[in-house]
Amino acid sequence: MQKYLLQRLATLVPTLFFVSILIFGLQQLLPGDPAIALAGEERDPAAVAYLRAKFHLDEPLPLRYWYWLSGVLHGDLGDSVRIQKPVTELILEKLPVTIQLAAMAMLIALAIGITAGVVSAVKKDTAWDYAANAFALWGLSTPNFWLGILLILFFAVHLGWLPASGYVSPFEDLKANLAAMIMPAFVLGNAIAAVLMRHTRSAMLQVLSSDYVRTARAKGLNERVVVLKHALRNALIPIITLGALEFGTLLSGAVLTEQVFSIPGFGKLIVDAVFNRDYSVVQGVVLFTATVYITLNLLADMAYFLVNPRMRG
Amino acid sequence: MRSLSLFGLLCFSCAVQSQTLRIGLAEDPDVLDPTMARTFVGRIVFSALCDKLFDLDEKLNVVPQLATAYEWSGENRTLTLKLRPGVTFHDGEKLDAAAVKFSLERHKNMPGSNRRGDLAPVASVDVVDAHTVRLNLSAPFAPLLAVLTDRAGMIVSPKAAQAAGDRFGARPVCAGPFRFVERVAQDRIVLERFPEYWNKGAIHFDRIVYLPIVDSTVRLANLRSGQLDFIERLAGSDVAGLKGDRRFKIDRIVEIGYQGITINIGNGERAQSTALGRDARVREAFELSLDRDALVKVAMDGEAVTGNQWVSPANRYYARNVPIPKRDVAKAKALLAAAGAANPSFTLMTPTTSDAQRIAQVVQAMAKEAGFDIKIQSTEFSTSLNMADKGEFEAYALAWSGRADPDGNLHIFNACKAPLNVSGYCKKEVDELIGKARTTLDPAQRAKFYEQIAAELAKDRPIVYLFHRNWLWAHAAKLSGLRTVPDGLVRVQGLRMN
Fold it and tell me: Which of B23, B118, B184, B218 to probe the A interface (max A CBs under 10 A)?
């Protein structure tokens, strides 16, 4: 395992280097002059010239890449021109919000998705199975923004139980924080639960028909033990991969859900920065989330060792 | 006794809550530095944070704020301002003539300043005494007072500005009724009452929290659920639903800006590529094909007033000699026939907002009846600005947030080689008239020049002006003291929760 881990860690550095080139290169493909975008509808010519000089926009691309990379290597991701704040500060500001939203959404998704998937596989072709499948279809086909607005209208405007939108830090008021996060977390978790349910169901069906499960049943083991201990554990491997990928996606921001619920996470930050061509923010945040994504994949690989003893050899 | 104390405690917390004003904004403001700022929504926050030399009233008259009096002299090349005594910045520094000189020079000279153009005619600023400054102009400039009612007239603390450098906007220090507390990007901006404010009797809230909520439905849901006290830019389609609810009130103000279609008539090669760009008769036919009343009804839910100039018909400088033309499809067709272009086609570039899309589609359908074949090119806003500057468009549906003085809506779009003149229009007579209107202080005389300009522009039509939107505000019925000034900014002086 140690060797495997070292191998994976060794690939991390060149991967991140490649990612940094990709981020920088792709951003250059954004249409329009970033100086004009930043200067806005008034776009005073002197302000445009200043912005062009400040971001070295007239200099060759490799040189601009070097300016950025050398800053990154020194831990400086630059400043947001739009609001004059260091990008690192912005990331640190949004990170707890994004992590909390992603974690809550993932918990909801895992609780609903795996339970529904297992039930659906075990009770195949029964009303339970049809209900779980119907739920998956609903989850997959419901647009997040639509479900979000419906929840707001029902729980905030009609019943007045939950705040319509906004964010409160858990350190300020934990109850208010949970009240503000439950609806967006459910909206996000609902969609992922549907995907997890489908995957859990098919993985469980495969495992349940395998020889060792039949043997376990033949040994007279309790069905509950067979399903939860023997079958589910093996079926979890693809679910972990999927869960890690979904969690990574959640960490890079859930644009529409954040927009609807006014949650100040990464999604809104990146989208606003792209529309305003706030390059330092886009580059910094994407690099950060890419690093998180790659690390999560690594952690998922490590998790295989924990759930599947055969891989430890 | 216990229940009484509990009651008292509850009431106290009610009172504390009611002293916070929660405002829902349609966008997240940009940098909170009046020198660098460039968005309309940022100006709403500045209204509570940074006082200006002058302000506007509901009729767009310039009224005193930090300056109490002014006097033009030296053939209108010198403007002397008397400053309000006893004003302090949020950091306790005195606001005096030296601070005003510092701020105006910062607006003019700071690298990246977006105020440079506003103050271009100001050649120098002299401190006459502690409470008097003199602005020396390179030429008379009638819009100057109106310019000083906006960000160019905001005075910042020299000490704080010098210490913060180009990060002043992260923690602005001004002399407004509220001081900066914190900002979490895309989440909230919190201001608290400044106890030493010169007009503190007019301030009835302890805190203001600005919450950017982009989706208008969610913004309204927050108001309805009691989480917000005020929202700006209520969607026109939501007016009917909110009208019957007694807990809320709706205010509307006709904007000082406009919505129009800019036509490329001289900016690069694309100008000559369409009959619309080449021939003024085709542009006249295009205008005649449009029914502005129907456009406002269908595309704007009736929440706009029709117009055909850079200021609305209610403005004192609206040129009545050039009224809004009525739709006349037959005449439009005749003009097209005379121009030898019975079915002219062109591409209409529009931003991606749903409003802009609706406007473009209605215009497309109306113009089709006269023979026009319009293709709609929906383009992301920043990209569209860039394409407009480069002349890579044939027609461009664009909204301008507007300036209090008519010159701010006219000069930069219509004068030869002006910064935002993307249509490439250039006519010596118009330039001379715009110049005269800028340098004449007498309103009656200026109005005459604008009549002549309107007549000239009506011949060439570099911009087909369509309408002026309503700023729609919705707020708790208990909130009183709102002043509906056409610049659409929320002034906090006098606001209270009853």
Answer: B218
Q: Rounded CA gap, A237 and A204, in Å?
A: 11
CB count, 10 Å around CB of B73?
10
Amino acid at B255: E
Q: What is the pLDDT of residue B1?
A: 37
Tokens 């913060």, located at residue: B164
| Burial class of residue B180 (count of CB atoms within 10 Å of its CB; 0-12, 13-18, 19+) | buried
Contact B116 A82 (CB under 8 A): no
| Across A190-194, B434-438, B446-450, least confident range | A190-194
Answer for the pair B468, B259: CB distance below 8 angstroms, yes or no. yes
pLDDT digits (tens, 9 = 90+) for B279-326: 999 999 999 999 999 999 999 999 999 999 999 999 999 999 999 999
Q: For residue A257, give Cα distances in angstroms to B136, B219, B378.
A: 53, 14, 24
Contact A82 B30 (CB under 8 A): yes
Q: How far is CA B261 from CA A268, B58, B194, B398, in A?
A: 31, 28, 44, 6
**A276 vs B419: CB contact, 8 Å cut-off?**
no
Is the Cα dihedral A38, A43, A44, A49 positive or negative?
Answer: positive
Q: Do the Cβ atoms of A140 and A191 come closer than 8 Å?
A: yes
Q: Chain A closest CA to B290's CA: distance in Å?
A: 26
Residue B11: the pLDDT is 41
Please name the residue that has the structure tokens 């405002």.
B23
A-B Cβ pairs (cutoff 8 Å, strict): 145
What is the rounded distance in angstroms from the CA atom of residue B226 to the CA atom of residue B248?
A: 10
DSSP-assigned beta bridge partners for residue B64: B54
Q: For residue B335, what are its two tokens?
A: 């003009």
Amino acid at A80: S
Strand duo B62-64 + B78-83: pairing: unpaired
Tell me which H or E stretch contains B350. Answer: strand B345-350
B132: β partners: B82, B129
Minimal CA–CA distance to B469: which of B302, B294, B289, B310?
B302
pTM for the model stands at 0.86
The residue ranking higher by pLDDT, B430 or A198, is B430
Neighbouring CB atoms inside 10 A of B458's CB total 18
* Spatial strand order in the sheet of B132-137: B67-73, B78-83, B132-137, B122-129
Q: Tell me, what's the ipTM?
A: 0.77
CB contact under 8 A, B187 and A262: yes
